[in-house]
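Hi support team,

I've been running sequence recovery on a batch of backbones for a student project. Most finish fine, but this one hangs at about 90% for roughly twenty minutes before it completes. I'm not sure whether the input is malformed or the queue is just slow. I've pasted the structure tokens below so you can try to reproduce it. Let me know if you need the job ID as well.

Thanks,
M.K.
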């Protein structure tokens, strides 16, 4: 997932505080606040979808999640990464391929796209692949996906407003008013 945000502490940075002194009524400030709120919405939506993913896995998984300290089973980090990809990806780019690789002891590692999703015995590979594929297909139909797509589209619009405002400020090369850093 692409997370667009201002670096931590940027609003307290000297540059930003001086810019705020020069342009206290600029639309930039409302846009930055809006972007931060949208970033929080993205996180909340992903968190809700992740909980839904775990519930779905607990109900229907043929293998189960890998236990703490164990490598056998479904891998939560890989599944969460693939889910977030499916939530944010465009419809046409959501098809990913499975890759398998043998590990010591005969276990097979299953990767879905860039995410290692499971480590299972050879006889469990087909059903595990089928389960993960079906699960990710379902993720593409979840209401959280629609919510996230709406939030991301709104965030892209806000980012463009911020870019436009910063371009205007940069290209004018002269700011109205004064700040504590302006020469006397």
């Amino acid at each position: 997932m692409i997370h667009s945000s201002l670096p931590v502490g940027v609003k307290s940075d000297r540059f930003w505080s001086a810019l705020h002194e020069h342009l206290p009524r600029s639309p930039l400030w409302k846009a930055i606040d809006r972007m931060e709120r949208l970033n929080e919405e993205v996180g909340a939506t992903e968190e809700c979808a992740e909980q839904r993913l775990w519930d779905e896995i607990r109900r229907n998984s043929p293998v189960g999640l890998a236990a703490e300290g164990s490598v056998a089973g479904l891998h939560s980090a890989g599944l969460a990464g693939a889910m977030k990809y499916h939530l944010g990806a465009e419809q046409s780019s959501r098809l990913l391929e499975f890759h398998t690789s043998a590990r010591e002891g005969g276990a097979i590692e299953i990767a879905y796209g860039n995410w290692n999703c499971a480590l299972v015995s050879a006889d469990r590979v087909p059903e595990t692949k089928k389960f993960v594929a079906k699960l990710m297909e379902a993720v593409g139909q979840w209401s959280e996906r629609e919510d996230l797509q709406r939030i991301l589209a709104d965030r892209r619009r806000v980012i463009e407003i911020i870019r436009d405002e910063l371009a205007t400020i940069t290209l004018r090369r002269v700011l109205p008013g004064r700040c504590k850093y302006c020469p006397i």
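--
Follow-up from support: It reproduced on our side and the slowdown came from queue contention, not your input. The chain has a mean pLDDT of 86. No action needed from you.
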